[in-house]
Amino acid sequence: MVGKTTTGVTIRQLQIFREVLRTGSERHAAKILKITQPAVSQQIRQLEHEVDLALFAREKNRLVPTDRAWDLLRSVDGTLQSVDRIEKSIAAIRNEETGSLSLAAPGVFCLNAIPRAIQAVRKSNALSFQVRAGSHQQIAEHVLNGRSDLGVSRLPLDERAFEWEPAATARNVCLFQAGHRLAAKEVITPEDIIDEALVDIEPQFAAHQMNINALRYRGVEPDLAVEYDANSHDVGFVAAGVGISIINSLIAREYRQFGLEFRPFEPGAVYHYVVFWQRGRQLTAGMRQTVDELLGAFAAT
User: Fold this and answer.
1) 153: part of which helix (H) or strand (E)?
2) Could you write out the three-class secondary structure of 225-280?
3) Which residues pair with 200 in a beta bridge?
């Protein structure tokens, strides 16, 4: 949807301008908007020409917003949100007519919960599904920017941008092969895994810091056998006996077909998972049915 104001400024220019401010760079804005970086630069220059304001300072190939840029965003953001809602409604109508629905979620949930939910939907509804996997941040961006109708993620989420329904609460667990010595424990602590090789998520994730710091606090340097960058990449290594893994109980239950065992791990954390969508979006019948089946699938795990 592209319109033009009496000043010659287009809605598209304002949308691109907003995304540059949100992401902090033309490159990131271009990636989210699925256009080229030169196209973003051109639209920003045209916008500055139309409003006759210097909205950005150019410093070392970077755009630095001026105070006028933030003033303009505050002035037009309400209008742009209204345009967003119109576009979302059109997209919902289009998806309903074409019988398709897009879902963004951590790839690990495609092992059990999401396939069961989709199977349940398709028993009475011929919807086709497009599933996008990614990090929690990428999932939120997919839903925020309309590339996905629904998302599965964990809190916190921005309540100004999203609405959601609770799906499951998870706590940290230790995952290991069936028959492992740790199976005799009701609760596993860092002292119990001092001599164990670990299959652990990469250092940029908070879960890594919690797991590793729990050992280092006790004066033990962990034996990191494998580091992985996305949930579900660990299960094969654990199943092969490479090491144990500290994950959460919802993810551990996705691994049921691998015949592994898990026990609560302390100290741990609590994770709240939700099914979510853009705030203000009217759910179609297919979306509502999919939300309900996803909630049921997670509750059954």
Assistant:
1) strand 150-154
2) EEEECCCCCCHHHHHCCCCEEEEEHHHHHHCHHHCCEEEEECCCCEEEEEEEEECC
3) 227
Length reported for the chain: 301
CB within 8 Å of 101: residues ≥ 6 apart: 95, 127, 128, 129, 130, 149, 150, 286, 287, 290
pTM of the model: 0.68
SS3 163: strand
Rounded Cα distance between 274 and 162, Å, is: 11
Could you tell me if 148 and 142 are in contact, meaning their C-beta atoms sit under 8 angstroms apart? yes
d(C-alpha 184, C-alpha 169), whole Å: 25
Indicate the DSSP class of residue 117: H
Q: Within a 13 Å sphere around the CA of 217, how many CA atoms are in the beta-carbon half? A: 10
Q: What distance in Å separates the CA atoms of residue 215 and residue 191, rounded to the nearest whole number?
A: 8
The identity of residue 86, as a single letter, is I
With a cut of 90, say whether residue 223 has pLDDT above it. no
**Band (94; pLDDT cuts 50, 70, 90):** low
Lookup: tokens for 156: 């916190």
CA dihedral (221, 225, 226, 231) positive or negative: negative
C-alpha of 140 from chain center: 4
| 191, containing H or E segment | none
Q: How far, in Å, CA of 257 to CA of 108, rounded?
A: 13
